[in-house]
Design brief:
Elements (H helix, E strand, L loop, with lengths): L2 H17 L5 E4 L4 E6 L2 E6 L8 E8 L10 E10 L8 H13 L3 E6 L2 H9 L11
Helix pairs in contact: 1-3
């Protein structure tokens, strides 16, 4: 499956998951510039920076601990980068991954190579192994 086909498939699956409340919100992130025309005027529109992943996804998970915080929901931010089976992250994508996973304690970065990986991430309670115990 080509990368553009994988991106479309992930977009469709995330739409379904949002409608089913499996994820709260997601957005397709595009990097680069596009030329926009309005009448005779032309505008260059700057999108996300180079290296930005294909998707940002916000979901939640319950905190499990021995404190009074048990059962409260906390936001989870995931960045999804779609790649073919042999596709590799660019230098800018590696830098983004390093920054987001280092600076933001609850952000995850996933390289998605097939739709099954997204199904595994969100169709089951995948956060059970990343829940912080206090």
């Amino acid at each position: 499956m080509g990368e553009s086909h994988l991106v479309r498939s992930v977009r469709e699956l995330l739409t379904i998951y949002e409608n089913q409340d499996i994820v709260h919100w997601w957005e397709r992130l595009n990097s680069g510039n596009i030329l926009s025309e309005r009448g005779s005027a032309k505008y260059m529109v700057k999108l996300c920076r180079t290296g930005t992943p294909d998707f940002i996804v916000v979901s939640s998970y319950p905190l499990v601990s021995s404190t009074d915080m048990d059962g409260k929901l906390f936001a989870q931010v995931d960045f999804l980068e779609c790649k073919t089976e042999k596709g590799k992250l660019t230098k800018e994508q590696k830098e983004f991954k390093a920054r987001c996973t280092f600076n933001y304690q609850w952000a995850n970065y996933y390289v998605i190579r097939d739709l099954e990986e997204v199904i595994k991430l969100y169709a089951s309670n995948r956060h059970s192994d990343t829940i912080r115990k206090q």
